[in-house]
Amino acid sequence: MDANEKLRLDKYLWAIRLFKTRTQASDAIANGKVKWNGVDVKASRQVQIGDQYEIKREAGSKQLIQVVSLLHTRVQYEDAIKCYVDLTSDEEKNKRLQRSAFVYHTGKRLSKQGRPTKKDRRGLEEFGEE
């Protein structure tokens, strides 16, 4: 990749899988959740190797990354993490892990919650007959 290549910030954050969609990356940047050297940036900002960005996540935690290489297309996670270095402090990482179970919803219901199973329903019906 050429050092003079141009790559938008929103496209880069989407490509390295920090955001699920490019629109989410653009919205986060527009809402001031992404900073470069403590300064708000625009989605159209050109990413340079060596830049450091601070990203505020939904749970209130912050992630600090440094650009190692440019990535124009979305690739597998294993390849994407090679394009940046996570400089986030261990304390902040631990906070994020503790909150992740409560904040991030994957759409799957937790075990033993939700509608009763057929077996549970039979037990409830028997209980009501007594």
Write up what this structure looks like.
The structure is a single chain. With 130 residues, the protein is an alpha+beta fold. It has a single domain, classed as Roll (Structural Genomics Hypothetical 15.5 Kd Protein In mrcA-pckA Intergenic Region, Chain A), CATH 3.10.290. It is built from five helices and five strands. The mean pLDDT is 83. The chain has a five-stranded antiparallel beta sheet. It has helices spanning 9-15, 22-30, 77-80, 90-103, 118-129, and strands at residues 34-36, 39-40, 52-56, 62-67, 84-86.
Percentage of residues in strands = 5-15%
Q: Average pLDDT, to the nearest integer?
A: 83
Write the CATH homologous superfamily: RNA-binding S4 domain
How can the largest sheet be summarized? Answer: 5 strands, antiparallel
Distance between the termini: 75 Å
Helicity, as a percent range: 25-40%
Low-confidence stretches: none
Query: What is the CATH top level name?
Result: Alpha Beta
Domain count, please report it. 1
Secondary structure category: alpha+beta
Task: Give the SSE layout.
Blueprint: H1 9-15, H2 22-30, E1 34-36, E2 39-40, E3 52-56, E4 62-67, H3 77-80, E5 84-86, H4 90-103, H5 118-129
Antiparallel strand pairs: 1-2, 1-3, 3-4, 4-5
Keywords:
single chain, Structural Genomics Hypothetical 15.5 Kd Protein In mrcA-pckA Intergenic Region, Chain A, 5-stranded antiparallel β-sheet, elongated
Summed up:
This protein is 35% helix and 15% strand. It is an alpha+beta fold.
